[in-house]
């Protein structure tokens, strides 16, 4: 425990700031719980709250609207620009200056949700996702009340500085209040979110994601300390990410061969390389459905998907796409000598 905790406790008491006083007390209780003095931790919590409020460190936070999810430990390659922004988030949160609300916007499959998991891992925080299925209610006014309730739960978390809350696809409940096509009920919900974001406990990190940034209420955007744009992938970034994905997946598919040069050439033959989420699924499916007796069958399947082909390859097309005789052999199973004969003896070694 640091001197700062004691000073903060006195400060919040003198200011009659009950919420921050409770949170600081919980932080102190957490410290004693970590060093093994569970009895003292429970006693501190009993002084500032109901006994049921205290949750030992090895237990999850129980909530109707929040669900704890696993933190991703797999590597997540990102373009340099986005990676720098994520580093900025980590630095800002660690400085504890009240910068704690972030919005990740971008097309589906750009890695927004997976990046949130990485942020939780880097900050060493538990990750909770808001259950919109529990939050949204058909009764008039109930959803707005549920929004207030979930923020109340967030603000009363036992260990706020150990928590990260994810509003995944927040556009499901937050729409533009001035849009004539918007339902009046959802306008009330958005207004409720605006008020609650203003009161959010500064020790909690909140990240929201959206695929519909252009439809967002401008006032809602201003409530976030930073907006991170995930629509910043160049072809080179996607090729590098695809190589990383394949290297990771090949550890699970032991019978598949590795030929990164051919793999990269297949990607370069795509008119448009998909975003990381779709790209990962494309590579995974190609590996999963490949012939285990042919170590490079997944590359053939991947190229067929890229070119939207259902039948066998035309050797002349493969030649036109820049594949060598050896690569054509791997993709078709036809020997190099036969490929060369069918291509009229031309050599593409």
Describe the structure.
This is AAA family ATPase. Keywords: ATP-binding, Nucleotide-binding. Belongs to the AAA ATPase family. By secondary structure, the protein is an alpha/beta fold. The protein folds into 3 domains: 1-57, no CATH class; 60-229, 3-Layer(aba) Sandwich (Rossmann fold), CATH 3.40.50.300; 235-311. It contains 16 helices and 6 strands. Strands 1-3-4-5-2-6 form a 6-stranded mixed beta sheet, with helices on one face. The longest helix has 17 residues, at 18-34. Residues 49-59 and 176-182 have low confidence and may be disordered.
Summarize this structure as a short list of keywords or feature phrases.
six-stranded mixed β-sheet, 349 residues, 16 helices, alpha/beta, single chain, 6 strands, elongated, Rossmann fold
List the helices and strands and how they pair.
Elements: H1 3-14, H2 18-34, H3 38-48, E1 66-69, H4 80-95, E2 101-105, H5 112-123, E3 126-130, H6 132-135, H7 142-155, E4 163-167, H8 184-198, E5 205-210, H9 218-222, E6 226-229, H10 235-250, H11 260-268, H12 276-288, H13 297-307, H14 315-320, H15 325-332, H16 336-342
Parallel strand pairs: 2-5, 2-6, 3-4, 4-5
Antiparallel strand pairs: 1-3
Helix pairs in contact: 1-2, 2-3, 4-5, 7-8, 10-12, 11-13, 12-13
- Would you tell me the structural class of the helices and strands? alpha/beta
Average pLDDT score: 84
List the secondary-structure elements in sequence, H or E. Answer: HHHEHEHEHHEHEHEHHHHHHH
Largest sheet: 6 strands, mixed
């Amino acid at each position: 425990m640091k001197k700062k905790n004691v000073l903060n406790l006195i400060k919040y008491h003198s200011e009659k700031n009950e919420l921050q006083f409770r949170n600081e007390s919980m932080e102190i209780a957490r410290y004693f719980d970590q060093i093994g003095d569970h009895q003292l931790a429970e006693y501190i919590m009993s002084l500032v709250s109901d006994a049921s409020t205290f949750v030992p460190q090895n237990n999850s936070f129980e909530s109707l609207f929040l669900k704890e999810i696993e933190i991703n430990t797999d590597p997540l390659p990102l373009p340099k620009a986005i990676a720098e922004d994520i580093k900025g988030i980590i630095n800002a949160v660690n400085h504890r200056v009240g910068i704690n609300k972030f919005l990740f916007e971008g097309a589906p499959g750009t890695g927004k949700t997976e990046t949130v998991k990485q942020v939780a891992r880097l900050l060493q925080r538990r990750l909770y996702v808001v259950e919109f299925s529990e939050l949204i209610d058909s009764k008039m006014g109930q959803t707005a009340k549920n929004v207030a309730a979930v923020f109340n739960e967030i603000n009363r978390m036992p260990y706020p500085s150990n928590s990260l809350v994810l509003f995944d696809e927040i556009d499901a409940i937050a729409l533009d209040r001035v849009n004539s096509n918007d339902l009046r009920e959802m306008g009330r919900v958005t207004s409720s979110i605006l008020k609650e974001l203003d009161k959010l406990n500064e020790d909690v990190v909140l990240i929201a994601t959206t695929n519909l940034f252009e439809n967002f209420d401008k006032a809602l955007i201003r409530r976030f300390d930073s907006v991170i744009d995930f629509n910043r992938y160049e072809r080179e970034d996607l090729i590098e990410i695809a190589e990383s994905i394949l290297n990771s997946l090949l550890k699970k598919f032991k019978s598949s061969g590795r030929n990164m040069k051919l793999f990269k050439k297949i990607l370069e033959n795509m008119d448009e390389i998909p975003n990381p989420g779709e790209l990962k699924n494309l590579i995974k499916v190609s590996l999963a459905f490949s012939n285990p007796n042919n170590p490079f069958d997944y590359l053939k399947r991947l190229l067929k998907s890229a070119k939207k082909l259902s039948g066998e390859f035309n050797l002349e097309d493969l030649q036109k796409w820049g594949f060598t005789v050896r690569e054509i052999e791997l993709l078709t199973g036809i020997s190099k000598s036969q490929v060369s004969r069918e291509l009229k003896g031309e050599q593409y070694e």
